[in-house]
Design goal:
It comes from Musa acuminata subsp. malaccensis (Wild banana). This is (wild Malaysian banana) hypothetical protein. The chain has six helices and six strands. Strands 2-3-1-4-5-6 form a six-stranded mixed beta sheet, with helices on both faces. The longest helix is centred in the C-terminal third of the chain and has 15 residues. The protein is globular. Bound molecules: guanosine-5'-diphosphate and magnesium ion. Magnesium ion binds next to helix 1.
Amino acid sequence: EWEAEEIDYVFKIVVIGDSAVGKTQLLGRFTKDEFFLDSKSTIGVEFQTRTLVLNRKRIKAQIWDTAGQERYRAITSAYYRGALGAMLVYDITKRQTFDHVVRWIDELRANADNSIVVMLIGNKSDLAKSRVVSTEDAMEFAEEQGLFFSEASALSGDNVETAFLRLLEEIYGVI
Ligand code: GDP
Ligand code: MG
């Protein structure tokens, strides 16, 4: 961990999407390289950070997690304030969580800065046998909406690092 004066940029990123899609686990995987069997252990935490070097700049990724407010669609505008990036997560085994992505995009349009960089994440790619949302459909949707897209698994760790790094790079490109 670096001292504050050694950091070149702080990038605030919000993680959004329906309840139980794996938001908290993705965040834990990226910031601690861990998968917690008891997800509730992180309830109440506002954000987690990870510092890394990107394009020779020291960047602190400050990643905000909900404390379950998404269940009631009660995320306050303070959550989105100052966010440069968003991870919008759905579960590839739950059709409804993908159908709700449009609602989350509306929520972003209403509360976040216009220039926010959005990465759509189809989580739980380890559950291939239970897949109900095809990669092609999600890719096409993401392209239409101007979102970056990746499938990932917080459980296996597959693509998690790559997706977060891609988002950070894209943010770096627009600041
Ligand atoms: P959140 O409500 O979106 O924050 O979701 P959580 O991170 O709390 O995860 C919800 C449930 O899905 C928990 O039981 C997790 O163990 C499980 N889960 C999260 N990510 C994955 C994943 O990539 N694969 C599988 N198989 N289960 C996952
Ligand atoms: Mg959570």
